[in-house]
Design a protein that fits this description.
There is one protein chain. This protein is an alpha+beta fold. The chain has 13 helices and 38 strands. Strands 8, 9, 10, 11, 14, 15, 17, 18, 22 and 23 form a 10-stranded antiparallel beta sheet that branches. It has a 9-stranded antiparallel beta sheet with strand order 1-2-3-4-5-13-20-19-16, with no helix packed on it. Strand 32 and strand 33 form a beta hairpin. It is globular, with a radius of gyration of 26 Å. The structure holds 1-deoxynojirimycin. The site of 1-deoxynojirimycin has 8 residues, from loops.
Length: 686
């Protein structure tokens, strides 16, 4: 028998929430409770089967997750999750639309049904906990709550037992976890049953076309999630949390709640983007932050690529990049071209020697003598440009936290509203994991400190994005994947042409990525020595693809990463000047993971559309109908395409710019070169 909550009448044919009691034999009574998404397609069911607590997930009546375990193991306390009974249930639902201060889309609809199930151990110590499920049309989320109780006060989680028993031996797109370079690995694909320990978001392609992404949301005072598989070659993945130095995963005290575990679903790859499930599971921002005028998406340039290609240095000496004179040159360039900011790395004492070993040495307030920080901040302000600070910690967290207040005081006193932070290393000197609870606490502290001091953050070597930007819109962007810099020094040739076509459906589901597109000197001829060969690390893309990445890889802070001299007078630079960094709406027109992507985005508050199309190493011809344009209006398309003979290996710089009238009935034929792309600006004709 299904029951409906008194408070709400389901619309016909839509399962809102229900409970089903089944007698499964005299000894093993089975109890199950379920909740479905507003469209009725996604249904998650909690069951106690022979005393074991599990959940399962179905879409259109077909299994996505088979019964999967829930619970915890503790240090110095028995595990929680077996031999439990339901003591209470409640349901709720919501349908509201909220506005992002900036984003891939302006409006986000939060439409879900919720089921809360309170459970109690049948035997002493009789601990209580709650599992909360939210079912949306684009996926489900669930979290644990541990209420305050005498049987459970302080605790140390040694293992979270949450499982994801994948119903199909789906193709997983994965990067390994617990490796030295954090999330900076090339994605590989293989059947779920072969996985070892992998990072999230983990994107899965089912054999019937269903696409699933497993991740987490609202990660606060807990350890970062990874997934471990491969046990007995089955398809069950289990949560595996990053540890403290002593092996404990999470230290806490009741009342306590965990992050959400999220399972996003779409009928095809294109349906995964834009991904808002995680944002809907984070608390909203306070008004003071949501409307803050100092939080501003922008394009920026910086004293940065010069170091990565070996032309300048972070440390002091004859090639020091962060000099007063050089910074003025960048500010002048930014001001002339309407860039919002100039990033300067290597400005502060601590870079000399092997900098990534200097975690206990970096000063975050003392500039090198050849860098006149107050004068440059004033010069930037006079020129309408923001100077962006840089705090590389090299994982010296104690050193950084000791200086946190003075460092952010300094930024605020100089009117600097942006800083890029860095965490090169895989653990702290004390041995705490890069993505563990210790670091999660640290990052939250930095976000809060930055908010108090009116500073926007761009975090490199971050933890994966779990939607913090909903609550803290000053948490603008982050790295957390192999970015452009691997094309300067990867040592393995750089990112392969397919890289960004995978990122779009994996890493990008978590949130913005400071990839730093826009390299024009694709053979890196301006570095000392001869141009780099295709075998050496360099961008394995065409120039048109570098432009398309501004539309494909979303970031509210978007860098034009090349040296100013490579942009000056270059006709294709116009696209970088024109492309927005904040969007009203996003429509994925076509794409296959690892092959190609075509995405259209409308500028926020305006009529212009931008299309970014990228391919892997295969040349492709794509038919792109412009059905998304309003009918009855004429537009002009500025098309930045791969030129004749363009190819990432031999002729990456060949491009063509053309202009043509278009409207809602137009079909564009996009010809993409091997490793190529196309960037299009569509603006209303006069
Ligand atoms: C690695 C970052 O990804 C890069 O952008 C930065 O320049 C260096 N660390 C130095 O902080």
């Amino acid at each position: 028998m299904r029951w409906w909550p008194n408070s709400r009448k389901p619309s016909p044919g839509v399962v809102v929430a229900g409970a089903l009691l089944i007698a499964a034999g005299p000894a093993a009574a089975q109890q199950a409770l379920s909740v479905a998404s507003p469209d009725g397609r996604n249904e998650v069911t909690l069951a106690i089967d022979a005393g074991q607590l599990t959940y399962r997930l179905d879409r259109d009546g077909r299994p996505v997750l088979q019964p999967s375990r829930l619970g915890f193991e503790f240090r110095d306390a028995p595990p929680l999750g077996d031999a439990v009974r339901v003591i209470d249930t409640s349901t709720a639902s919501a349908d509201e639309t909220w506005t992002q201060p900036w984003g891939e889309v302006r409006e986000v609809r939060d439409h879900h049904n919720e089921l809360r199930v309170s459970l109690e151990e049948e035997r002493p110590p009789g601990r209580r906990f709650v599992v909360v499920f939210r079912a949306f049309d684009d996926g489900v989320g669930f979290r644990y709550e541990l209420p305050e109780q005498s049987a459970l006060g302080d605790f140390q989680i040694s293992e979270e037992l949450t499982e994801f028993a994948i119903a199909d031996d789906a193709r997983a797109w994965w990067i390994p976890a617990f490796q030295q370079n954090r999330y900076e690995y090339l994605y590989r694909s293989s059947p779920v049953s072969t996985l070892d320990t992998v990072q999230t978001p983990l994107t899965l392609e089912f054999h019937d076309g269903l696409h699933v992404a497993i991740h987490e949301a609202d990660l606060v005072d807990y350890a970062g999630l990874t997934l471990v598989g491969g046990r007995e070659q089955n398809r069950t993945l289990r949560a595996y949390l990053a540890p403290w130095a002593d092996g404990v995963k999470v230290r806490g005290r009741t009342p306590f709640r965990t992050p959400w575990r999220t399972i996003q679903m779409a009928d095809e790859a294109a349906g995964l983007v834009p991904s808002v499930l995680g944002l809907n599971l984070n608390p909203p921002a306070p008004d003071s932050l949501a409307a803050a005028s100092w939080i501003r998406p922008m394009k920026y340039v910086g004293i940065w690529w010069g170091m990565h290609i070996g032309r300048m240095t972070w440390g002091s000496g004859p090639r020091h990049g962060a000099t007063t004179e050089n910074t003025k040159r960048y500010i002048d360039f930014a001001s002339r071209n309407g860039f919002g900011g100039v990033l300067v790395e290597g400005w502060n004492v601590g870079w000399d020697g092997v900098w990534y070993g200097n975690g206990d040495v970096f000063s975050f307030t003392q500039p090198y003598p050849d860098y006149d920080l107050p004068a440059l901040a004033a010069y930037a302000r006079e020129h309408g440009v923001g100077l962006i600070g840089h705090h590389e910690t090299a994982m010296g967290i104690e050193n950084y936290e000791r200086q946190l207040e003075p460092a952010f005081d300094l930024l605020e006193s100089l009117g600097m509203h942006g800083v890029k932070t860095g965490y090169v290393g895989d653990r702290t000197p004390e041995g705490h994991a890069h993505h563990g609870q210790y670091m999660v606490r640290h990052w939250r502290k930095v976000i809060e400190t930055a908010a108090r001091h009116h500073v926007m953050l761009d975090v490199h070597e971050p933890i994966h994005d779990t939607g913090e930007r909903r609550t803290f819109p000053n948490m603008m962007t982050r790295e957390g994947a192999r970015g452009q810099e691997y094309n300067a020094w990867g040592g393995d040739g750089g990112n392969p042409p397919e890289h960004e076509t995978i990122l779009f459906f994996t890493r990008m589901l978590a949130g913005p990525f400071d990839f730093t597109p826009g390299v024009f000197d694709l053979k890196i001829e301006s570095a000392d020595g001869p141009p780099r060969s295709p075998e050496q690390s360099r961008p394995r893309t065409t120039l048109a693809k570098q432009l398309a990445l501004y539309v494909v890889l979303y970031s509210p802070l978007q860098m034009a990463s090349d040296l100013p001299e490579n942009y000056e007078g270059h006709p294709a630079f116009q696209f970088i000047l024109d492309v927005p960094v904040d969007w009203e709406e996003t429509r994925v027109l076509d794409g296959r993971i690892g092959d190609y992507v075509v995405v259209a985005r409308r500028e926020r508050g305006g009529d212009q559309w931008f299309i970014g199309a990228i391919t892997d190493e295969e040349a492709r011809t794509l038919d792109v109908p412009l059905w998304f344009l309003p009918r009855g209006r004429g537009y002009v398309a500025d098309i930045y395409a791969d030129g004749p003979g363009a190819d990432w290996r031999d002729d990456p710089g060949s491009y063509e710019i053309t202009h043509r009238p278009v409207d809602a009935d137009t079909h564009l034929t996009l010809k993409l070169a091997p490793g190529g792309g196309q960037a299009i600006r569509i603006h209303p004709s006069r």
